[in-house]
Amino acid sequence: MDESGKAPWNGPLCAGRVAVVTGGGGAIGEAVGRALADHGADVVVADRAADRVEAACAAIEARGRRALGVTGDLTEAGAVEALIARANADFGRVDILVNALGEHLALSGPFERSSEEGWDRLYRVNLLQTMQACHAVLPGMRARRWGRIVNFSSVEGIRAMPNAAPYTAYKGAIDSFTKSLGVEVAGDGIRVNAVAVDKTRSHQVNFYRLGEEYDRHVPVWVPAGRYGEGDDIAAVVLFLSSEMGAWIVGQTIVADGGTSSAGGWYRTPSRWTNSPLLKQYFEEDPAINAARPKGVQ
Ligand SMILES: NC(=O)c1ccc[n+]([C@@H]2O[C@H](COP(=O)([O-])OP(=O)(O)OC[C@H]3O[C@@H](n4cnc5c(N)ncnc54)[C@H](O)[C@@H]3O)[C@@H](O)[C@H]2O)c1
User: Fold this and answer.
1) Most buried residue, 33, 179, 206, 282, by most Cβ within 10 Å?
2) In the predicted model, what is the mean pLDDT of the chain?
């Protein structure tokens, strides 16, 4: 409780704050923008998809908050610095930075067949732009002695993802970057944390386009019994972006419906097993798996 008797959980949680959300038109980024606006923040939405930027800004403005859309490729030289400069120029400062941009780029395959060009693209879209954005907002946050940064990791940065070693390397790097930077700036009222996501419906993971034959498997794959939605992740980001997260420093919060805790255990209709028989891969109908939409592992 502060001097006025207000506890951290008395909302609105982000009243008067200015937030920047990269990948802000994506499934998670858009939900984060709505959550922050619902709690009193003005939001800068940065994404390369113009239609998603427009929709995300409309949702923020519908909540009575100011929105600024910035459309462009954030992996281009100078783009992140220009974004933060624009946010500072138009909205006066950046209190909350949510680095929701990150992509696997569908670059999967045996490591020995990957290329340096591919590693570089994954580095730019997952790690480099996150570091650039933190670098650009920290001087202002330090001067005001308040700031919140939420980076985006993946359970794949914690466990393995075969055929995606470079992607997992950069997501794992987000976790260690978050830990060190979080400790480095904590004394100045700044909190840097991360969210590690799994099985959340979004544009890049394509769970929107899975056929009905997959439906009965979802409770087997995900202990919580369903796919995650953008709002599930936005709730965690909101918590970390407010006074509620004041005592959390450099942590990666896993938000995955239980997949990493399950660690290879599956709830089938008859029993829990850590040795599922994947019959369809061997004899039943291999075409079921071959027909998975692009991007779905
Ligand atoms: N959804 C999941 O299950 C899951 C799992 C692990 C990690 N994540 C992480 O969550 C974060 C949010 O992703 P999401 O799942 O909402 O995906 P999404 O595809 O819905 O959103 C990503 C957004 O980023 C934008 N974008 C892509 N490249 C860009 C670029 N170069 N410049 C500017 N904008 C660009 C896209 O247009 C899109 O709107 C990412 O960091 C992702 O790695 C998600």
Assistant:
1) 33
2) 94
- The per-residue pLDDT for 282 is 79
Specify the pTM. Answer: 0.96
Indicate the residue type of 106.
Answer: A
Ligand 1 pocket, CB under 6 A:
23, 25-29, 47-49, 52, 73-75, 100-103, 125, 152, 154, 197-200, 202-205
Kindly report, residue by residue over 44-73, the tens digit of the pLDDT: 999 999 999 999 999 999 999 999 999 999
C-alpha span between 134 and 150 (Å, rounded): 10
CATH number, span 18-290? 3.40.50.720
Set 123, 167, 227, 281: catalytic member: 167
Ligand 1 atom nearest 126 alpha carbon: 41
Q: Rounded to the nearest whole angstrom, what is the distance from the C-alpha of residue 143 to the centroid of ligand 1?
A: 30
DSSP assignment of 97-119 equals: EEE-----TT--S-GGG--HHHH
Q: Where are the domains of the chain?
A: 18-290
Q: Which of residues 289 and 186 earns the better pLDDT score?
A: 186
